[in-house]
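Memo to structure team: turn this sequence into structure tokens by end of day. - J.P.
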Amino acid sequence: MKRTYIYVDGFNLYYGALKDTDHKWLDLKSLFEKLLAPGNEIIKIKYYSARVSDKIKKGASARQHAYINAIKTIPEVEVIWGNFLYTEKTRRMVEPPRSYVKVEIAEEKGSDVNLASHLINDGWKDLYDVAVVVSNDTDLVEPIRIVKEELHKTVGIICPHKRLAENLASIPPSFIRHIDNKMLRMSQFSRVITRTSIKKPDSW
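Reply from structure team:
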């Protein structure tokens, strides 16, 4: 069996595969067991995210809290937090009169750096035989290349989007998997997590 660590870019997964679906109540381990070969023993699933604010969408923080509690019931899951930075910026309107307006921008900070740091450090410490990166973020090209070419580890990508970014494909990763709706549908938690009071948000 190959010791396998999985590194999940939470927002990339959400916006790439989950946002406009009914499959947000996703059991990560169940999904990855379907995507990976039977010889992969999932030792750790590291999930990188940042705490959302209701300033962006009403009820978002409660829904996220419920989901984080749900995935924490999976023994292999570890949640690593980054931060959201909320700033005001001036942007020009597309439509006439093309005046300038102030808009609030929410930018996630830290998750990609955290993921890259753990990917390299865990590989250097020989904690895994296979690393799996769940993202389509081109900022991860160099850390993936380092682990594959310099640490001589197998590094695969599970792409949440329909097409893998060209820069990521050019590494190339050891293998590429894509997430489809059938896999998502078959990898859902029960509405109420067994032996807990954690339940799927009504709006999901």
